[in-house]
Write a structure and sequence with these properties.
The chain has 300 residues and is α+β, with helices and mostly antiparallel strands. It is built from six helices and 15 strands. The longest helix has 24 residues.
């Protein structure tokens, strides 16, 4: 893979600076009792204010929900007392994406678990370099988590990032696995260890809710208004995930048109991910660029 040219790397770096600022700001903002939609909208507004665009809706995933919860329109859910809250933020500059997350822990019982995710991320950043296999990296992440007395989520992974593609190319499992795929200089990755309690199953399942969607392809549609809605989605979000609440002010938006886009597979839904046994989950995440000596953290 050719190395990134300077202009492209600068866009990744700018996306990373914005994502880092917004992550830290949201970690200070989030409080028990706060409406989740206020956190989501504050994060997305801050991204735009700082000169970026959201690469996906702000995720605010609480307790056993590991990922993919963003508020639907008029969401009334609040941050519960004594909860563990994952805030996952994506920013893009001209399609070049930075993806980062942090956990805010309001429950003393889960502070060590939260620290295990952070420690695993730090170890992974020290370990990743050109030529290392994804299996060696996964084994390292798993050892750090288990040595601290916790369990990695086996079916949630870090991932390579491409232009207008949050997940592309290689995956970075957080557990030992068989793979000969290697990390290459010039690649960009999101590293994100998900950690749960030792008595949990350590895997996620799909929940019944889905509030994040993505454009797939144009197809024949019955209603003209549905065609216009699809054109709006493709023009504004391209291949990046979007929230249904982002369409509130779109004149083509209606429940029937949106349903037709889903049923015709013009767009897809991302269900929330829930720990299979109800175990609570922590997550930290950075986006890194791989240079010849190792990882350059873009979201520090």
């Amino acid at each position: 893979m050719p190395l990134l040219d300077r202009e492209v790397l600068e866009k990744y770096e700018e996306a990373g600076r914005i994502a880092s600022k917004v992550r830290e700001e949201m970690a200070r903002v989030v409080k028990e009792g706060l409406l989740i939609i206020e956190v989501c909208e504050a994060a997305e507004t801050a991204i735009r204010r700082l000169g970026g665009k959201p690469a996906f809706p702000c995720n605010v995933s609480v307790n056993e929900i590991a990922a993919h919860y963003t508020s639907p329109p008029r969401d009334e859910k609040r941050i519960p007392r004594n909860s563990v809250v994952k805030i996952d933020i994506g920013v893009h500059i001209d399609g070049y994406i930075a993806d980062t997350a942090a956990t805010v822990c309001f429950n003393r019982e889960y502070r060590d678990m939260t620290q295990a995710s952070k420690a695993a991320l730090e170890a992974a950043i020290r370990t990743i370099r050109p030529g290392i296999s994804t299996s060696e990296l996964g084994s390292k992440i798993q050892r750090v988590i288990e040595n601290m007395g916790f369990k990695p989520i086996s079916n949630l992974t870090g991932h390579q990032i491409g232009r207008y593609a949050v997940h592309t190319g290689k995956s970075l499992p957080n557990v030992s696995h068989v793979s000969f795929r290697k990390i290459r200089e010039g690649e960009v990755y999101a590293i994100e260890p998900f950690v749960t309690t030792p008595d949990s199953e350590g895997r996620v399942i799909e929940g019944s809710e889905a509030h994040i969607f993505r454009f797939l392809k144009r197809r024949g549609l019955k209603a003209g208004v549905s065609k216009n809605l699809l054109k709006y989605i493709e023009k504004n979000y391209r291949t990046l995930p979007f929230a249904k609440r982002w369409l509130t002010n779109c004149k083509f938006m209606s429940e029937s048109s949106f349903r037709e886009l889903l049923e015709s597979r013009c767009i897809m839904a991302y269900p929330v991910f829930i720990e299979a046994s109800g175990g609570w989950v922590a997550q930290f995440e950075h986006t890194v660029y791989i240079d010849k000596s190792g990882a350059v953290v873009l979201t520090e």
